[in-house]
Amino acid sequence: MAPPLTALVDSLPATVPFVGPEAQERARGRGFSVRLGANESVFGPSPHALRAMAEAAADAWQYGDPECHDLRTALADHLCVGPENVLVGEGIDGILGNLVRMLIAPGDRVVTSAGAYPTFNYHVVGFCGVLEMVPYRDDHEDPEALLTRAAETGARLIYLANPDNPMGTFHGPEVITDMLNRLPEGCLLALDEAYGEFAHRLPPLQADDPRVLRLRTFSKGYGLAGARVGYAIGAPELIDAFNRVRNHFGVGRISQAGALAALQDQRYIRAVVDEVTRGRERIVQIAADQGLTAVPSAANFVALDCGHDGGYARAVMQALRARDCFVRMPFVAPQDRCIRVTVGKPADLEFFGLQLPLALDAASEASG
Amino acid sequence: MAPPLTALVDSLPATVPFVGPEAQERARGRGFSVRLGANESVFGPSPHALRAMAEAAADAWQYGDPECHDLRTALADHLCVGPENVLVGEGIDGILGNLVRMLIAPGDRVVTSAGAYPTFNYHVVGFCGVLEMVPYRDDHEDPEALLTRAAETGARLIYLANPDNPMGTFHGPEVITDMLNRLPEGCLLALDEAYGEFAHRLPPLQADDPRVLRLRTFSKGYGLAGARVGYAIGAPELIDAFNRVRNHFGVGRISQAGALAALQDQRYIRAVVDEVTRGRERIVQIAADQGLTAVPSAANFVALDCGHDGGYARAVMQALRARDCFVRMPFVAPQDRCIRVTVGKPADLEFFGLQLPLALDAASEASG
Question: Which of A109, A185, B79, B279 might form a disulfide with A155, Cβ 3.0–4.6 angstroms?
């Protein structure tokens, strides 16, 4: 007989936070023409990163440095903080999992927005934390509501993505700073800045502030989603505590080398950010041509308001997928009137622009 | 003020299972000439794997397939089991962490050998499991003692590495099969076969047997330690339960591609195994020339008995490191009379052979 799972793990649902596009392609029996659903950077990483990874591949027989020393030091220099303020980990997903493990005992409260990042929720549920969800307000995550609910429930952790995913909306530095100043005692703000490169005004780094952990990644602006490298910036005591639970050799050698080279090519990132800005404008225009409104975005994707309910938006998404456009709809009501479209290369967006009116027709027919 | 850690995590020691050679090189202020301390494969991965990783790097802007479908299917075919019997994860380390999380509640007993894999112990301690350690017997892990202690303590998990690390000793299939048949009810055997490619007679795969999870890796024979890909073979219910806790996007795109290509080049692996066999023989000879005995090894490393106590062996190890040979000594008494030397290329081993007598002299002087 199989040994039983712990009561805690036995109680967990079998969840998959996201079905990957590859699984969808296997189910469809054919590939997508454009991959605009996972907020990846179609512009790819810096050529320097590609070269660094090819070189590192020859040394892939060696474990990566478990201290990620070179990358950690370079990040600290780049951010003007100390290396003791920086943790490198297996993507923001991996870091969030360890953060929840460190702070949340069964029954502890965690506040997030209904419709925010499902992988964070997956980790909270996975350690039997109790999710407290507040609604979006005007398509933005709502700092007031997050703070109020945290105070009411004695929450240990608030999650806020800024820019937000999936809406793309953004709060200026003054909003975040104010929120930090009003954080309930004993509560940490997990500030997910995965899309930070695309936002031009992030709050200043007070790296020793023990009330906030800022989470960033090489998966978005740096174009290295497939390398799995994220990092966190925070107070030394919290950063150091990750050493008690993290998978010390978890960030591979090729990944460390690629991330380091990508970081060192800031000119490339600026060019990507410019491309993304132009791409967002193009998506807004394509949507406007069909009478759709785009939610203003500070990220590398745009939430397009399809103007009806969730059923209609889902039909639009499915019709786009049927026409080989991979897009997603990771929303809850009332944000589920939207579909989410990642910025692509110009040719990708032209293809999307051709398919969108056909998809809207198909959705109207289906719901009419 | 910082939010408090959970009582569980707060109670954990700040442990580092292994200090990487890079950290030692930084402390020394210079690199090692030969890297024979981490049981990596100096022969590197198959050229096909290098090519596959270089190609995949261009797609590194895309997340890896969270289902690892192609690799998982190829592993299943190679092993003649079903894909539902195979889990791909972030190295054996990552899989062990999740396995402990799934099976061990605070206070649950876990049996291992005193001096066996410290990273496994790190995970057990990290989930507040209680480690029960039994001694080695004749430099082998002792199945009888492991079984007896498990029965006495109602353990939920036994860890056994076969071939063993750090001793390199091996139990034949009949010993493991017998052990499985006598496993206490409700206890799982975590059978770490990281070095399985170097052992010629592994027990037959009974993949649906719910009493055992077999752990294998691309880090050793396949020469991809820096890519972080391990896999587990077990009963479908247990494999599936990992979906409740694993980091779904944790295995990167380049890593999946490299591992798949490495798996498909079995001719290369056979050549590596032959090189390793010759290298082991060379290490045994080098040791014998200095009057040292080698523990018979079925892995890609050899434990060399330095003939005295732990202090002496430590002095030998340190003298070797001072002479730019990175070797390790991850033993507890009485196995700590040994140093552990990974098979290197012929030139690496000649360098080691030149340094060993000098290191022995230095150690004798230090302890004399």
Answer: A109
8 Å CB contact between B2 and A211: yes
Q: Which residues of B touch A12 (CB under 8 A)?
A: 244-245
A76-95 residues touching B, CB cutoff 8 A: 90-91, 93-94
**Which among B2, B90, B253 is the nearest to A226, CB-wise?**
B253
Contact B284, B294 (CB under 8 A): yes
- As to burial, measured by CB atoms within 10 angstroms (0-12 exposed, 13-18 middle, 19+ buried), residue B80 is exposed
Query: Strand locations in chain A, DSSP E?
Result: 34-35, 86-89, 109-113, 130-134, 157-161, 188-192, 212-217, 230-233, 293-294, 301-305, 325-326, 338-342
Calculate Rg over the CA atoms of chain B.
21
Q: Among residues 265-304 of chain B, which lie with CB inside 8 Å of chain A?
A: none
Query: Distance between CA atoms of B341 and B211, rounded to whole angstroms?
Result: 33
CB A197 within 8 A of CB A46: no
Q: Does A219 touch chain B (CB under 8 A)?
A: yes
Asked if A28 reaches chain B (Cβ–Cβ under 8 Å), the answer is no
Q: For the segment B7-55, what is each residue's pLDDT rounded down to a tens digit?
A: 999 999 877 778 899 999 999 999 999 999 999 999 999 999 999 999 9
The whole-angstrom distance between B9's CA and the closest CA on chain A is: 6
* DSSP one-letter code for A156: S
Residue B1: pLDDT band by 50, 70, 90 thresholds?
low
**Pairing of the two strands A109-113 and A157-161:** parallel
- Residues B122, B159: Cα–Cα separation, whole Å: 13
| Cβ contact B252–A255 (<8 Å) | yes
Q: What is the pLDDT of residues A55-99, one digit of tens each?
A: 999 999 999 999 999 999 999 999 999 999 999 999 999 999 999
Rounded CA-CA distance B246/B243 in Å is: 6
- Percent of chain B exceeding pLDDT 70 equals 99
* Contact with chain B for residue A27, Cβ under 8 A: no
Q: Exposure of B16 by Cβ count < 10 A (0-12 exposed, 13-18 middle, 19+ buried)? A: middle
Residues of A (176-215) whose Cβ lies below 8 Å from B: 185-188, 210-211
Chain A within 8 Å of B171 (Cβ-Cβ)? no
| CB pairs A-B closer than 8 Å | 283
The pTM of this model reads 0.97
Q: Is the pLDDT of residue B2 over 90?
A: no
Q: Give the C-alpha separation, A145 to B257, whole Å.
A: 44
Distance CA A101, CA A108 (A): 11
So what's the pLDDT on residue A231?
98
CB contact under 8 A, B57 and A58: no
- Model confidence pLDDT, tens digit, residues A234-256: 999 999 999 999 999 999 999 99
What is the average pLDDT across A304-312? 96
